[in-house]
Structure formats: C-alpha cells, structure tokens
Write a structure and sequence with these properties.
Gln_synth/guanido_kin_cat_dom; globular; Gln_synth_cat_dom; alpha+beta; ligase; 15 strands; Glutamine synthetase; 15 helices; Gln_synt_N_sf
C-alpha cells in the first residue's frame, strides 16, 4: 500500500495549518468511500488508532436503503458497529481538496479481532494471502473510463436526467484538439491525483462524445484497487468543483458506447520476477500463465457479478462496441473478453475487458484472483487463442443479464471455497436486490413504448 504521508508528517502539517482535515474512509460494497471527517490534530492525537461506523454500510444499496435479507445485519439485530482501523500506509494528501488528507481503513469486528469477511478490502486481502502462500504476488492495473457532461450533478438531477449533454460533440478517441477543451477538468485530475500519491501515467480521449480515460501505473493488487477507488472518487469531486457531472455509469444511452474498466493482471514471484513470462514458450506465455488464464475462462460466469454488479452493467455488452460478448481469449484483440497483451515480452499479461466503469475494483480483482488460483490448482488449459472477430466467431457468451450472473454466483463452488459461503450469500443478496429494485420501477421506455399504442 502506498500513501505519501506518515503520521509524523501529518502532525507537522496539522501544526502548521497546512492540513486541518482527515478523511477516514472504508470502501463499501459499491466501491465508494464512506466514513468521517476528523480534525487533523484529533486524528494525529488518537483517531489514527481506530474509529467506528454503523455495520449497515456493508448492507445497503446505492440509495443507502437498508435492504432486508442480509444475514450479517438487520433491524432485528439492531444495526450495530464495525471498527474502522486506519491503515497508515495509505495515508495521503487529498490534493484536490483544500487542507485535506485521506486514509483507507480496514473494516473489522467491533473488538478489532478480525476483518469483516464480506468487506471488499478484506476479501481482496484473503486472495492476496492465498497467492502469497503459493509464492506469488498479484500485479494489476485498471483503466478508468467515464463521461464528462456540460451540466452539473445537481442540474441533471433536477431535470430528471433528461437532455444529458456530453462536454464534447464528437468521438474523441485519442483526439488532442477535442480533449484540449476538457483540460480544465483533466489537467486538474492528473496533477492533483499525482500530488496525492497516485502514480498517474496520463489520460486520453475515449471512443465517444465527452468520454475520457485515466491511466494509472500498475502495482500490487491492493495498490491498484486503492488507487482506482481514490481516483474515481476524486474525479467526481473535481468535476463537481468545476460545475460538471463526471459519470461512471456503464451505459447512459443505448446508442452511445459504454464505459469500461479493463483490468490488467499478472503474477510475479516474491523476488520480483514476472511469473507469466517464459521466453521459450509460445507467445512468451508460461505454463503458469496459461493455467491462470484457463481458470479465468472456466469460471468467467461465476465471477461476472463482481465485474458487472448492476442491471445497467449488462447494457454495455453489445457487438461492435469494444465491449466483449464472448468469453474467449485472444492475442491483442479487443473483441474478446480476455486479451493477451505484451506477448513475447516480460510484460506479458492478461487484460480482462468484461468489467464496466461501475465495478468495485476490490471485488473484481479478488474474484479474478480466485478464478486464476483455481485454474493453477486444476491446471486448466485455455486452449488456442481465438483469431478474427470474436463477436462473430464465438458462441461462448458471457452472462447477458444480472439474473443469469446471479445464479452463476449462487452456484459457484469455486467462489464458496475461496471466499466462504457467508460472503457469497451476502453478494448474492446484493445482486438479487438490484434486480428486485429495477423490476419494481416503471421506466420511461415502457411509458413511451406503450402509453398510446398498448
């Protein structure tokens, strides 16, 4: 984990008045930062050791609704507390906010004895520990795609989210002129995140109007998840500061390309040697890499809820949209769900193109590690790479609905063995509720289609 402040440095900055606020945050099921604002001096004096939060923070939906049916907490159980244990290795300046620092907390039982098993950070830590026992470290990088709109969050909410207007007028993929017009947001984002200890590499226009991509240097699996989460949070706040809505909704309009969050992954030895690389093997791909990829393919259905957690997530999977529809692998081919990148080099790695911009990176990476570990244990063979257009050349579809993905998660022995029955049942309930909430609402599409003609 990599912050850019020590507690002693924070104390000095607090004494000088440069930093007066500390955000102590957990990561909830949806991948959001939730927590408290502390007076910096109080944090330095005592709150750095622990604080507390209501345990409903890991049992609500996007609306903060107290969903029935969770075994971990409920009205009948009284909604007690979790302990928030700041991980001081994540302490950093939040340079996009005046006088503010930020720290990520572990979510522990009320007495601080152990991580809460279904907490996203705890779930990723468990899979990292399993890999460590095998002698490996997971290395990951995520891509953040999002849309910037002319209007603010408040303006769009008051309009009922009608007449959404992207900040640009045409496809800006790699387009320097068009993205120059968005530099007020993006330059601030790159520079303040870098000043906050996030190893930003750069940004580029993506393949739609008003769509940007932010790239962060690879790192350990935990660093990748935390860098992603902080950057996503900051992007929304920076947009808000400048009067623009920044949205990570995967598919905001049916005729627009969606927003993804591709995840790159490989394993290294404890000595820092890339374990996916074998210079003598075809494509430079080690036997370990093939087995890991084989696990991702075999258990792709099982892990999809963790990559695509909402009803809207599945609207992104459309032919010809650069979003995958087939659970196949290929070599440097953006039509497949799993793309081999850097073939023939030490940088050889697997890019999973399934996750949307709405993914929780802790859950997504944990699930992929679990599938990859199982692939190694079972010596899964991924077969030959697909060539050509995966949209046309394969019938091996990824789950196309949240319902289908939920049933795959419910029945996943692999994930139950890797994460525990209680954890999987918890996230099955999360996915069930998302479907139930959607089905209880009358949509604009239904009214427009049937109001007169039905």
């Amino acid at each position: 984990m990599s912050g850019n402040l020590t507690l002693e440095e924070l104390g000095a900055l607090s004494a000088s008045g440069e930093i007066d606020t500390v955000l102590a945050c957990i990561v909830d099921m949806q991948g959001r930062l939730m927590g408290k604002r502390f007076l910096a001096q109080h944090f330095v004096d005592s709150a750095w050791e622990e604080t507390h939060c209501c345990n409903y923070l890991l049992a609500t939906d996007l609306e903060m609704h107290t969903v029935e049916g969770y075994a971990s907490t409920s009205w009948s159980a009284g909604y007690g507390d979790y302990l928030m244990k700041p991980d001081l290795t994540t302490l950093r300046k939040a340079a996009w906010l005046e006088g503010t620092a930020l720290v990520i907390c572990d979510v522990m039982d009320h007495h601080g004895h152990h991580d809460i098993a279904h907490s996203p950070r705890g779930m990723l830590k468990k899979q990292i520990a399993r890999l460590a026992e095998m002698g490996f470290e997971a290395v990951s990088a995520t891509e953040l795609e999002f849309f910037i709109f002319e209007q603010s969050f408040d303006e769009l909410a008051k309009s009922g989210y009608r007449d959404l207007t992207p900040i640009s007028r045409y496809n800006e993929d790699y387009h320097i002129l068009q993205t120059t017009k968005e530099e007020g947001v993006m330059r601030t984002m790159r520079n303040t995140l870098y000043a906050s200890g996030i190893p930003i590499e750069g940004s580029k226009g993506e393949a739609e109007t008003g769509q940007e991509e932010l790239n962060i240097r690879y790192g350990s699996a935990m660093d990748a998840a935390e860098n992603h989460t902080v950057a996503k949070h900051a992007a929304k706040e920076i947009g808000w500061q400048q009067g623009h809505a920044v949205s990570f909704l995967p598919k905001w309009r049916h005729d627009k390309v969606g927003s993804a969050s591709h995840v790159h992954q490989s394993l290294w030895t404890k000595d820092g040697v890339p374990a996916f690389y074998d210079p003598e093997a075809e494509l430079g791909m080690s036997e370990l890499a093939r087995h890991y990829l084989g696990g991702l393919l075999k258990y792709a259905d099982d892990i999809t809820v963790f990559l695509a957690p909402y009803v809207n997530s599945y609207k992104r999977f459309q032919k010809g949209s650069f979003a995958p529809t087939a659970k196949v692998w290929s070599v440097d081919n953006r039509t497949a769900a799993f793309r081999l990148c850097g073939d023939g080099s030490k940088a050889v790695r697997v890019e999973c193109r399934v996750p949307g911009a709405d993914m929780n990176p802790y859950l997504a990476i944990a699930a992929m590690l679990a599938a990859g570990i199982k692939g190694i244990e079972e010596k899964c063979d991924p077969g030959a790479p697909l060539t050509g257009d995966a949209y046309e050349n394969s019938n091996e579809e990824i789950p196309t609905t949240l319902k289908g993905a939920t049933e795959a998660l419910r029945g996943s022995k692999m994930l139950r063995d890797a994460m525990g029955d209680d954890v999987i049942d918890h996230y099955v309930r999360m996915a069930e509720w998302e479907q139930e909430a959607f089905e209880a609402v009358v949509t604009d599409w239904e009214i427009a289609r049937g109001f007169e003609r039905a």
